[in-house]
Amino acid sequence: MVTLGPYCLFHAHLFIASPPAPGVGLLFHACEYPAFDVDCFPYNLGYCQEGSPLRPMGQQLAQRNILWYQDNLISLDLYEGSLLRNLLREETALLYTLGEDDFGTPLLDVTLQPYNGNSWRNSAVLVSSRLIM
Q: How far is CA 66 from the centre of its chain?
């Protein structure tokens, strides 16, 4: 399950898609900061992980990459045997994280920043450039 919040889904990566299908896309990473758990998620991600209610189960992390491209929202399933697993880098494979540069040229990171602590009702959208001039 994907939830809008500081531990699951709060940012996206904007990119210009590479040919043969040019366009602009967004890559989202859900389940960004699951709680540390010796059995389910034995990875220490630092202070951002503290207090996380997320408990990834089974193949949940394999479905954490969500792509918006050409008006389609697609969950990229990296289950065992999926051809998409070939896009995983060694350093991010355990967390099933795809990079936006796998789909084209990274442009911006878009982050949802809550006002008043963790209230997402009135959030600001922050944009940071990834362009190298």
A: 7
Domain boundaries, the chain: 11-129
**How far apart, in whole angstroms, are the C-alpha atoms of residue 41 and residue 114?**
26
56-96 residue pLDDT tens: 877 888 999 999 999 999 999 999 899 999 999 999 888 89
Check: CB of residue 16 under 8 Å from CB of residue 24.
Answer: yes
Q: Quick check: 103 and 81 in contact, CB under 8 A?
A: no
Task: Give the Cα separation of 122 and 115 in Å (integer).
Answer: 6
Q: Cα separation of 51 and 37, whole Å? A: 12
pTM of the predicted model, to two decimals?
Answer: 0.82
Buried b (16+ CB within 10 A) or exposed e, 104-126: bebbbebebebeeeeeeeeeeee
